[in-house]
Amino acid sequence: MFKTTFFALAALSYVGGLHQAHSMEAADIAGPGVIFADRSAPAVVSVRTASAQHSNMGGGFIEFLFGDRPAQGGRYQQQPAYQQQPPMQQRGSLSPAMAPQEIISPLQDASDSERRAINPRYEKQLVEYRGDESPGTIVIDTPNKFLFLVQGEGKALRYGIGVGRPGFTWSGVKQISAKKEWPDWTPPPQMLARRPDLPRHMEGGPENPLGARAMYLGSTLYRIHGSNEPWTIGTNVSSGCIRMRNEDVIDLYGRVSVGAKVVVI
Questions:
Q1: 225 classed as catalytic
Q2: What is the reported pTM?
Q3: Model confidence over 154-191: pLDDT tens digits?
Q4: Between the chain's N and C termini, which has fewer beta carbons within 10 Å?
Q5: How far is 125 from 159, CA to CA, in rounded Å?
Q6: Of 19, 22, 201, 241, which residue is the catalytic one?
Q7: Taking the domains of the chain in order of start, what are their residue ranges?
Q8: Using an 8 Å Cβ cutoff, are 159 and 124 in contact?
Q9: What's the topology of domain 118-264?
Q10: What is the b/e burial string over 179-211, where b = at least 16 CB atoms within 10 angstroms of the residue's CB?
Q11: Phi, psi dihedral angles at 70 (to 5 degrees)
């Protein structure tokens, strides 16, 4: 009886052991599959997604280097395969960067007007003179916009000038009554009545519209003077004064004296 009971218990134990071993084996087989799916699947999917969605990176090792940063939504951002360069001004650019409001357009600034070429005929030159005026006389040819300084021996120095606008031209014979270097400018009441925006007085200097030199004509308000607008030479531009380029008026200023005759035609 005891033996029978012992063998029965042993048999049950053997069967139970086989069932437990089978269960453990099944668990060993199935368990790693579940763990692998739970923990490793996202990494595998991410790598495959990066390669498929950014195949323009070349895949393989390049993809591995530059495709390891997931963006929002689990997608990989394509990283540039080069290092971003610093801005031009930080690399010692030959031309400094300019703010938008500092950029110079072709139709902006006085320098643009200065780029307009002055007609060569208005540049100072020695020409033939067949008039009756004596050397040292200034002859102003208003219609042709020339000033002649008679030299004698049938020669004259000719300068280009700007003259009065229509309604402001005049003619006559005057004398130089005064000479000034870098003269001040005080617009006369008649001019202020027409142009109330003008300053009441302006000190001499490069910005002064009378330019570098002025030669006053008798007791009139008219002058032969320089200009900070050289591109206006050869035009009808003034209120009656005779306008010259600064380099020309400086040259003329040194050649004539107070009392010199001025003939305006």
A1: yes
A2: 0.57
A3: 999 999 999 999 999 999 999 999 999 999 999 889 88
A4: N
A5: 7
A6: 241
A7: 2-74, 118-264
A8: yes
A9: L,D-transpeptidase catalytic domain-like (2.40.440)
A10: beeebebebeeeeeeeeeeeeeebebeeebbbb
A11: -70, 140
